[in-house]
TrEMBL record:
This is FecR family protein. The keyword Ribosomal protein does not apply. Pfam families: FecR, FecR_C. GO terms for molecular function: sigma factor antagonist activity. The chain crosses the membrane at residues 80-102. Keywords: Membrane, Transmembrane, Transmembrane helix. Residues 252-320 form the Protein FecR C-terminal domain. Residues 112-206 form the FecR protein domain.
Amino acid sequence: MSELIDKYFAGEMTCEEKKDLFDRIESDEALKKEFLRMQNVVALTQILSRQDDSETSRKGKQHFMQLLFRKRLKRAITVSLKYAAVFAVLVVGTFYTAKLYLSEEFGKSYTIVTAPKGQRVKIELPDGTIAWLSPCSRLRFAASFNETDRKIELDGATYFDVAKNPEKPFVVSAKGYRIRVLGTKFNISAYKNSKEFETDLVEGCVHIYDPADIRNEVFLQPKEKAVLWGDRLMKRESDFDNEEYLKNGVVSFLSEPFGRVLNSVALWNDVNIKIERSVNATQRISGKFRQSDSLESILKALQGAMPFKYKIVSEEEIIIY
């Protein structure tokens, strides 16, 4: 079975062989573990190096090159780079591999990257675009990304620093809307299990539209954001602090309704937060905290902005009263 995995990462499998391998992985736990182990090793070759982690990065790459030699996978690096099969990710200052896997639909291969709850993930896409995934966020794109187009699907919140390419617009699909850019910096918040949709533009120009209704569209300039008013896109002034967010993962909020802040916290931690009627969820508060802070630390910090108590019912449920 290990030979099949070697063949897969070498890019030497036919579509039928890939389907057969994926079917076996689903029913064979040992094979699944071996596949994920190899996937993580491959990811080390694409590690995003920082100055203070250069030695770690060098050793990781060296180890993988030795492994490739032993397993006769000399083509794996080329294939991985070309088809964006794997990535290395930086999670809040420490190197990890995020939940990352491949899927196939109707003969097309896709790469899926998921950020764990309570952690941010940084990746570099094949076109040079940098993406910071917020906790519990998911990106999905075709293996052919950047060959004929630059289309990506998002469930969650992500900050994009898009590489410029006038010939290939960068298009994000989220909650039924399209965000189209050429080269710019912007943040999208569009979790599927939330009613909210928001796009903050930091630099460049963004076109946001509803493909089902061409009249429902907005064009953003820097320091503007798009929000939903009912089912219509509207423009508002933006106070998104991208510099502090990128450097430290610090989220700032200025005069935001308490309920909305809690909603973001719930999405980042994949929990259900119930607010009882005795608490004024519309009261506006201001402050900041790190996305990587523990849920209880964030709640205690919010208690400094307004009076409330909380009860942790389970890992999935919290009551605010």
